[in-house]
């Protein structure tokens, strides 16, 4: 029965992860704790395997469509590796109820940022093609416009490519953004035991001006790197419940491919609102549950 429950939850979480590039781990940790009976620390370890494997699988579909920003994703992930080790060390020292309350607070902050971004975005241009409008959000169009302008202003093609990859700003500004954001996300990955998609996607949207589909695709690469680093940091001290992890992971990997198809059929702004609503709902549930147990 536990294996069947893990299989069903994996299908749901994999679909969210593939469609939104984040949220899988947010669902995974509460599901492992409240539905499958794991402790918070065991759940955070199990989720790293589940979400990391599902992220790699989901990234395949996005890579074929050319939506993964490879250089940005690799640099972002590497920047967070050392911080992931620090977060893992702190995870072992914190009471699990306080850990989950902090987890809920971060979810709320991320959801707020995403909702503000969705409200302030301009509508898609009417001249966009049907295929582009279906998968490329407003920021994607603005990236293209900036690229054309930059190419006209400079005979060197490197600057426009960097603009597309890292958003507006100089190389040093982009590097500083990647370093700071990567360290923060890496720490959260190690501390909360999640892939970090619920933070990575808002960061990529807000700081690098990527559309939701491109941010989702790139976040999957970052999630895989951060998850691997955090798992290495936990090696030797973690407990792995393979009877739960294996079916959960297989189902999540399969469903993450379907999630990419779902994302291609929904508007960018709707995806943003779905993501934010999911963060708020689960964050409230986790906070109420753990505050009640502390009181």
From TrEMBL:
Its main location: membrane. Keywords: Cell membrane, Membrane, Transmembrane, Transmembrane helix. It comes from the Bacteria. InterPro entries: TM_pro_TauE-like (IPR002781), TSUP/Inactive_protease-like (IPR051598). Signal peptide: none annotated. It is found in: Cell membrane; Membrane. GO terms for cellular component: plasma membrane. The chain crosses the membrane at residues 45-63, 70-90, 96-116, 178-208, 214-233, 240-258, 270-292. This is Probable membrane transporter protein. Belongs to the 4-toluene sulfonate uptake permease (TSUP) (TC 2.A.102) family. The keyword DNA damage does not apply. It is a multi-pass membrane protein.
């Amino acid at each position: 029965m536990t294996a069947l429950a893990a299989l069903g939850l994996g299908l749901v979480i994999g679909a969210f992860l593939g469609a939104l590039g984040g949220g899988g781990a947010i669902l995974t940790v509460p599901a492992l704790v409240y539905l499958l009976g794991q402790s918070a620390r065991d759940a955070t370890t199990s989720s790293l395997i589940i979400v990391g494997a599902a992220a790699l699988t989901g990234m395949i579909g996005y890579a074929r469509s050319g939506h993964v920003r490879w250089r940005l994703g690799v640099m972002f992930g590497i920047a967070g590796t050392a911080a992931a080790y620090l977060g893992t060390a702190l995870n072992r020292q914190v009471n699990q109820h306080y850990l989950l309350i902090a987890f809920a607070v971060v979810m709320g902050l991320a959801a707020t940022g995403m909702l503000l971004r969705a409200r302030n975005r301009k509508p898609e241009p009417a001249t966009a093609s049907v295929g582009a409008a279906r998968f490329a959000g407003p920021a994607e169009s603005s990236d293209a416009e900036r690229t054309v302008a930059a190419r006209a202003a400079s005979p060197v093609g490197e600057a426009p490519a960097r603009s597309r990859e890292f958003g507006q700003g100089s190389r040093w500004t982009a590097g500083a953004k990647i370093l700071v954001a990567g360290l923060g996300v890496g720490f959260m990955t190690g501390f909360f035991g999640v892939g970090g998609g619920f933070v990575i996607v808002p960061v990529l949207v807000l700081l690098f001006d990527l559309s939701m589909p491109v941010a989702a695709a790139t976040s999957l690469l970052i999630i895989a790197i951060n998850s691997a680093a955090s798992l290495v940091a936990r090696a030797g001290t973690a407990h792995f419940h393979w009877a739960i992890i294996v079916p959960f992971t297989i189902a999540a990997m399969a469903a993450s491919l379907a999630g990419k198809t779902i994302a291609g059929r929904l508007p960018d702004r709707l995806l943003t609102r779905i993501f934010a609503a999911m963060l708020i709902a689960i964050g409230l549930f986790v906070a109420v549950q753990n505050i009640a147990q502390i009181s």
